[in-house]
Amino acid sequence: MRETDELFIYKENSIEKTKDNLPTYKKLGVNFIAIDMGEFINDDYLREIFSLNEFLKKQGFGLMLRLDLLILSKNLLDSKLGDLTWENTKVKRAVLSFLNFLVKRGIAAFDFLNLSEILDDKNFLEEIREINKNVRHLNEDVLTTSLIDKPQFIKYLSSTGKTDFSFIQAMIDHLKIEDLNSFYESGPIFAKTWDDFSNKFSKNFAYFSISQKISNILALKGPVYLESSDIDFEMEGPFYKLTSYIENLSRVRKENKSLTRGDFLEIFKKDKDVFAYIRRYKNEKALVINNLSQKEFLLPISMYLADYSSYKLALGNYGQRKMVDNLLLRPFETSIFIKK
């Protein structure tokens, strides 16, 4: 089973696009394709899903099904049934039976949507673990994930037990940058959105601001889980470089484990337009520097890092540059430096 920080999941909009975009997936380092399970499930649709799963396996990819359990229960049962909650034994039995059927047919990854709509708040943890335990009964390597909007449960659900999620998707729109430390201390997490970056997007610097957001999302210890809203393979104009940048970013992430597994230390905290941090893993260090503004300014690197000259650029959204004692940061610049 892959480590979660080796997962690169791309959420595609249709089965047809999935097959058309395979060469681009391979270039980017994608290894799982996520597809929404249709609202109306019938034999023909299931055959199409299973056929896609087998096709992707032969191409070296995995298929992740995105399942809304409330919609699924309406589909499997009489939609007029009033109590469509997990406490209803008919709902629970139907959903778990269908999940077992999918696992038996080779589906090995699930993204459960809108769990709060069907699970009980009081028994939220227990009911989630019941679902995970059920799907792993037949295949202990099944990947499971969900967007969790209950912060108090994130640390519990991102542990490595068999009844927990493989990784958590967390909404961090309303967290401050300085609060990110808690995410590095938790289990595998994918930051669903990043308000501190996305709020500063500018039409004049579209490529740089978006590449900055993605660069820092990829520096969390969880997997990469991008959607078509994050990157469009048919983008033109200032976006045409983005697929190439993500391809290189994926490579840098794989080659330098400090980016995803290292401890986390924020630096230059007093500069509100700078988000910079060091990650240490064994004998390797990663230094990530972000200019969050549209202005250029000089960052006195040598004041904080005595060994700054030992860091070499691994990737930057402005291209090649050298580490110097006073670093000129350009608008929405992100640079990743590595010290071995």
UniProtKB/TrEMBL annotation:
Belongs to the glycosyl hydrolase 13 family. Keywords: Glycosidase, Hydrolase. It comes from Anaerococcus prevotii (strain ATCC 9321 / DSM 20548 / JCM 6508 / NCTC 11806 / PC1). One of its GO terms (molecular function) is hydrolase activity, acting on glycosyl bonds. InterPro entries: GH (IPR017853), Glyco_hydro_b (IPR013780), SusG-like_C (IPR056300). This is Alpha-amylase SusG-like C-terminal domain-containing protein. Residues 274-335 form the Alpha-amylase SusG-like C-terminal domain. The keyword Amino-acid biosynthesis does not apply.
